[in-house]
Amino acid sequence: MPLYECVLMARNDVTQQQVEAIADQVGAQVEAEGGAIRKREYWGLRSLAYKIKKNRKAHYMLLGLDALPASVNEMERQLRLNEDVLRFMTVRVEAIDEAPSAVLTRKSDDRERGFRGPKPAGRFDSGRRRGYDDREEFRARDEYRSDRDEPRPGEE
Prior knowledge:
Layout: E1 3-11, H1 16-32, E2 36-52, E3 55-66, H2 69-81, E4 85-93, H3 102-112, H4 136-148
Antiparallel strand pairs: 1-3, 1-4, 2-3
């Protein structure tokens, strides 16, 4: 049977359990027609790029399906009728990757991200006025030069 991936977006008013119930209904319908769900991922409540049916956020769910084209058509029809589903997209794929999707791996990378270095001097600093040579890159350059014991320009 062909393999498909379906991403659906549900309204932010519904709970995660209700989104799981929608995925259960899809799974039951696909399995009743001889298919199977190979992958199921809940991506969480995420912000939308623009409003869809007056919603700014949506619950995202990824389903990896092994199903016949007729059962996929019926699944899409059921998703269109469901008022809690804002959008969905089903794509035929060659293989369903068993590893976590890029969305979930990126989420874990965001949590592990730590200190990224000092903030660059911007237009709106704190109240303290800094001189031209007081910026961090100039201090680092001066420390580097003092380590090498070279005379600075104009200090001969």
